[in-house]
Amino acid sequence: MSNNVNRNYTDKELAAMSNEELARLGTELDDVTVAYRKGRWPVENDPAEKRASNSVIIWLALSIVMAIAFLAVYLFWPWEYRSLGEEGKLWHTFYTPALGLTSGLSIIALGMAVVTYVKKFIPEEISVQRRHDGPSEEIDRRTTTALLNDAWATSTLGRRSTLKGMLGAAGVLFGLVVAAPLGGAIKNPWRAYEMDYYGDGTLWTSGWTLHEQGVKLYLGRDIGTTAELHEGQAGTHYSTQGLSRLVRVRPEDLAAAGMETVFPLAEEHVNDGDRYDENAVVYEEHMHSIHGPRNAVMLIRLRPEDAESVIEREGQEDFHYGDYYAYSKICTHVGCPTSLYEAQTHRILCPCHQSQFDALQYGKPIFGPAARALPQLPITVDEEGYLIARGNFIEPLGPAFWERKS
Q1: 207-389: what CATH class?
Q2: How does the entry describe its membrane topology (predicted)?
Q3: Angle at CA 119, nearest 5°, toward 70 and 51?
Q4: Which label site among 8, 20, 259, 399 has the fewest CB atoms less than 10 Å from its CB?
Q5: 182 φ/ψ sector (left φ>0, alpha ψ -120 to 50, else beta)
Q6: How far apart are CA 293 and CA 314, in angstroms?
């Protein structure tokens, strides 16, 4: 602190000082030298000042409009997934770009308004301060408050009610632009909905849980079908009518030492083989099954000589069908897909963090950070020779959570 400035002012003397005097004293006490200071608009009612104010108002208005547009898009735009050829596909495609455009413009416009205001209204000033340490005294607190009040007064914002209101509105709406998307990330993990290919919304369930409601579930293979282009009197359009994305799997469809990713396929959504119907509309349900976050299963067919050395997990000795074993594809570490199967070593590999599981020992982890075996799906074949789920998984799928018991 400076030793050349009188610090022995009484409370009465400080109270008698004007805000300008306190602000000047505060700079002196803090060893600040104001080398240069000039107000932006020394002449009152300068037309240029009005134009500068209007430019700030325009930026704030744009920020407010874009923030409102963002909230409208976020709340009311059709966000549900639409596949190629479905009605509403075009609107769904623009959902994310619309969010990015409106939020980006809102933030940029607010930033431009602040920068414009600082450049056009805050007084030009060059100040130099010598660094010092020590606790604040009463005189420091008084003068600091005065400096803040002086900054408010010299900014002229206090007397610009329109700018104040619009800046406040823009600030509030900017906060909503930032906070609104976070609401979609907040979810009660135990709030149950109607059971479907996504489960019922809780962490215990998946599309395979439909089996517990009496639904016959086939092991469906994804054949990658996409919408087909049709031409008619009304013009050209894409359609998925009669198309199947998932088809049933027979044991003979998989070669020894082979692996196939399969998904739950409810009997009512089968559209292949002798049940094919060119008018069936099942493509969307098949896509829901594929997109179910815990539905993917690795169907592995072991070589006969390898199957003889399998070590079954206690209580799951009959979960396999002959040489066929079905393990959840969701890694028990952090939920990545265990996409790789090495037939020579019988290892299932998760490419994210290199966890490895032994297919000959109930999917037990043998390397990497995963600590639990891959859950095994009980499977069999039906009277038509198609592989089906004989039951649901008997333990939760994926990584750990607090309430998980296994």
Answers
A1: mainly beta
A2: Multi-pass membrane protein
A3: 80
A4: 8
A5: alpha
A6: 27
pTM higher than the cut 0.90:
no
Tokens of 400: 């750990």
Structure token digits, residue 197:
């290919």
Sorted by where each begins, the domain ranges of the chain are 11-183, 207-389
Question: Quick check: helix, strand or coil at residue 381?
Answer: strand
Query: Shortest CA distance to 264 belongs to which of 295, 307, 224?
Result: 295
Residue with tokens 């959570």: 401
**Token pair listed for 96:** 């994310």
Per-residue pLDDT tens digits for 40-62: 777 777 888 888 889 999 999 99
Q: Quote the tokens at residue 105.
A: 């413009």
Output the pLDDT for position 1. Answer: 42
pLDDT interval class at 136 (50, 70, 90)? low
* 230: its two tokens: 């049709």
Residues 6+ positions from 297 with CB-CB distance below 8 Å:
208, 219, 261, 262, 263, 326, 327, 328, 329, 377
pLDDT band at 2 (very low <50, low <70, confident <90, very high): very low
Whole-number Å distance between alpha carbons of 111 and 95: 24
Distance CA 287, CA 138 (A): 69
